[in-house]
Fold this sequence. Notes:
344 residues; alpha+beta; D-amino Acid Aminotransferase, Chain A, domain 1; D-amino Acid Aminotransferase, Chain A, domain 2; 2 domains; eight-stranded antiparallel sheet; binds 2-OXO-4-methylpentanoic acid; Aminotrans_IV; BCAT-like_C
Amino acid sequence: MNSKSWRYTAEDLPQLSPFGSVLADRIAISRFEDGGWKSGGLIPMNDFRLHPGAHCLHYGSSCFEGLKAYRWDDDSIALFRPDRHIQRMQQSAAVLRLPIPDRDELMEMLVATVMDAMADIPPAPGTLYLRPILLGTDTNIGAAARPSESAVLYVMASPVGDYFAAGDRALRLLIQESARTTSQFGKVKTGANYASALGITLDARDKWGTDQILFCPDSDVQETGASNFVLIDDKTIITKPLCDSFLHGVTRDSVLQIGRDLGYEIQEKDFCVDDLLKWTQHGEAALSGTAAVLAGVGTMIHNEKEYTLSGGETGPNTQRLRKALVSVQRGTEANGHGWIKKLT
Ligand code: COI
């Protein structure tokens, strides 16, 4: 512990890398059995048990969320848009035919997890990343075509710094004209989508030194493996309109609203790879997500050719929007949209 009552200082953030590898000791847990949720309170992570025949392990009945708690400069603690993350988890659970988490109970679990891990919340620029996850737990290894009627929901906490190993370096993307996942799973936050993007992302990293793939099936510019994708210039923010084929990012929504507040014109419209390549001649691009925040893109590779954006750096409008977003998350700016839930 440092002289204050928490474990980490800003200098300790490199120890928290890679993102998500340091975990708080306890989880908040609830089980859905016999038609209802039963809270199990907070338990040591090592006491968590899952049957080897659990539905989630065999048939992929699982979905998760990612949101953050922030230690503000006055040492108070705040969650950013927990209600939107709960809604999205309920939407994911419905598509997977899993028991739907109860809104109020999940909110209580989030709060309990943060309060329990209070000493682990790093100061800026670190955060406490929260990972609610819902798993189908029926033990019937033949139930491929049946939903799991039982489930476990728990919340993990992880003190984190930057998600991308690149830190502040602008990212390299490979433009790939294939889909990240299937159209019926695109808006579901499920592990299968990340598994589907993994191999191809690693192959591209080996060949091109890229950080992420930008998935553009039939030339439709959609999203990367771990984040949504936006184009930005001095006046405009452009991104794909919401549809079932990609994740409905809470950060995407927040950046669009903050952009609107700052006077940018918001265009939610489809665009193709040719439009994107033309855009690289004058505009900026960025990845948005809870983990990514708003990360600038410096290079895109398409058909073995490299396209540089903003001189290979994070562009000034991306920096401006990121700063505005982080200021709201950290409470140094208020924006009146009711996005902050203060816990202390
Ligand atoms: C998030 O941004 O919260 C995510 O779930 C991305 C994940 C790859 C860390």
